[in-house]
Amino acid sequence: MVEFLGMDQASGPTILIYTADFTNLGTYGPHPTPEEGEGLAEIDFTSVEARDGSVVLTAEVTYLYGSGDLTVHADDFAGLVLPDGYTGERIEEYSAEEEGVLAVVTPEEASAGFTLTFEGLPEVSLLRYEILSENAHVRDSQREPDPIATERCVDAGEEDARVWSQTDGAPCDPDWG
Question: What pTM does this model have?
Answer without folding.
Answer: 0.85
